[in-house]
Protein 1
Amino acid sequence: MSDAPTPTDGGPGSAMVRRNPPFSPRRVGAMVLRYIYLIRGSWPRIVEMAYWPTVQMILWGFITLFLIGHSSFIAQAFGILLSGVLLWDVLFRGQLGVAMSFLEEMWSRNLGHLFVSPLRPYEMLVSLMVVSLVRTLIGLIPASLLALMFFGFSLYSLGVPLIGFFLNLIVMGWSMGFMVSGLVLRVGLGAESLVWAAIFAVAPLCGIYYPISVLPDWLQCVAFFLPASHVFEGMRAILVDDVFRSDLMINAILLNVAYLGVGMAVFLAFFRSARINGVILQVGE
């Protein structure tokens, strides 16, 4: 049955009305076409479709590869895996705390209001770091206490090095959060999925659940330049060998100094470009 206009029963001269069937394939097709155009016009959306299955496959592939050749690891796996999960959350929450706080300003179209005030861009970056730290602690402390209550495992058994691990991971998270936020400001909210995608892209290279030696040689070279890989190697050294690797801590600190500088510089560069082009007043849903 067509959707063409038909006369009412009121006789000659009656107004023409359009039939509205309960279900119209044409309307469904029009909406599907709309969403296809949206996907086609945003490369982050296209990449995201293949991204998550690929990351999960790589991560669990390396975990399986490690476990196959190290059956003795199973006896110590409980504490190592729980430590990895909790410390990974520091990195993830650190990055997410920065990026999500910034995105909330974009979603509410509040950036323009903020920067007609005396607020400096670098002051905003410092405030984002403080908020990220608070949000991370709110998430980590209850989780670590519940791990002790339910499983008898204490993350705090890592001792004083835990402070260094925490700071290195959250600083790396801040650095990535600044870069991603700047990129979203430059490209637009169509790229907001990068907030989650970016941090998980480096997860297989950080050695969260397995040693870096499991990776192919060329990926080990890439992992060397990630502060998190040195943190998780240092964590395993304490839990497995009861040894504190000061060299790994120093490597992570030096890399994070560079990461934080680059992250802030990238954000400020994108922010300056957005302000010159008048983008700040146009961002939003």
Note: The longest strand covers residues 5-7.
Protein 2
Amino acid sequence: MDQSNALSLMEKLRSGTWHRHKAMERLPFVTALVEGRLPLDSYVGQLRGLAVIFSAMEQALADSTSPLLVRLRSIMKSRFQLLCEDLAFLASKCVPDILPAVRLSLEIAAEIRKVVLVSPGEFLGFIYVLEGTTRGNRVHLSDIKDCFHFPEEQGTAFYAGYGERTRIHWEEFSFILNQANRELHPAAMQGAEKMYEALERFHFALFPLTDSARGLTATALNPEAGDHPVPRDAVILEAALRAARRCWDEFPYFAIRYGSRGRRFADSDAAWLASLSDLSARVIADQVLWFGRVLSCRGMPTLLLERQLELLADELAGKGKAGAEEALFQAAADLRKAREQWMPPDCWARTRKRLAELPVLSRAADLPDLPSIFSAALADQRAGIPECLHSLMNWLRKTGRAADEELDGIRAVLAAAYRAQGDGKEEGGA
């Protein structure tokens, strides 16, 4: 009998990848960390890249219906959220990206999304390596603290991980992983090797540093945003982030519906919009039109983008970026003109007032902007984007904020507004 067949999956993975684990401990990144000379830029770069990777892994787990993966998901803390917590604390340091590391993290994330669909065994190997970092992180937690001296345990949530429960968690994790079908074992070994190799390349890109590898991408603002352009001019970038926060504060709907993840996208989206300011007015208009449809389909009517553009232009004007702000003001004006074509100001005011009088919306004190959001969604529907209104109705229903009969009341107001424009149709949403 082949003795290897008697081994559990965890035993095979541990013995088969031990050399990889030892090699990771000898990486220049780890050596510099232990010796207290790792640059903050390398540490922040590691957290940003791992946030991209763990976001992909946790989303793959969340989407899976595999009983084994569902069980694993039930015992695993969101380490992506821990990474976001650390990155939020470190955001004020304004650390540039290490561009090769960003590219490698995006490649690893793409591989995770592919492998979970085509090779479940390899995905188990990926999980083994990534979740196994909880133990290595605990070993190096004191090194992080000694190297950077962050106040009050801040900036180290990811390395702290499961804390004193790390050993117990690993036992639970091992027990579940060992339930995997033996037919998956060879692929799991292959996946573990592949992930170790990818993480080695990622950490080699993080240290030692070279000046030519520095820059700024959207991952610095939002690990889930990819590597789309953001302004290289720090003044423009800061203006974009202020505009995002102003728009976020102006519409409570953002925070209540989309939470902290939405806040991160607000920052990266505003930065992308600011990066358009060097382009021609025609190109900006085309990009804004496309982006407005994308956001509307996700439950954010184009009114919100219109307002974001106005605030961004205002911030840029305040920083003496007159040339940059003009095209953005024009793009906002174009969106407003299109909205008013489908819902003139008098109809807008009347519809918003009737919606605000509905008990289901008037009692939503935490969402005073909902009447405007619904009015804007109706304008988008009339412009050929019905998904926004459907998304809003479904959200109210699924969150228990509105019963079916209350949704019918909203539909009735919207249908009346629709008919008032002379279409003779009664379409008030999903």
Note: The domain at 3-220 is CATH 1.20.910.10 (Heme Oxygenase; Chain A).
